[in-house]
Write a structure and sequence with these properties.
about 60 residues; mainly alpha; 1 helix
């Protein structure tokens, strides 16, 4: 009985570790998308800045 319980617990732990790994990768991808979106917001905000027309500030 202990062996069966132990095996069941090990399988549960393996499954949870796999789910955590998948979630971690998903969060990494989400973070990358958020970073890109923030870069776009900054770029668009710079377009609204009248000083953007100065030669050295064009992105």
């Amino acid at each position: 009985m202990h062996a069966e319980l132990n095996e069941g617990l090990q399988n549960d732990v393996k499954e949870q570790a796999h789910e955590a790994s998948v979630s971690s990768r998903g969060l990494g991808a989400l973070g990358s998308e958020v970073s890109k979106a923030l870069d776009d917001v900054v770029w668009l905000r710079n377009l609204e800045d009248p000083n953007i027309l100065k030669k050295n500030q064009i992105p």
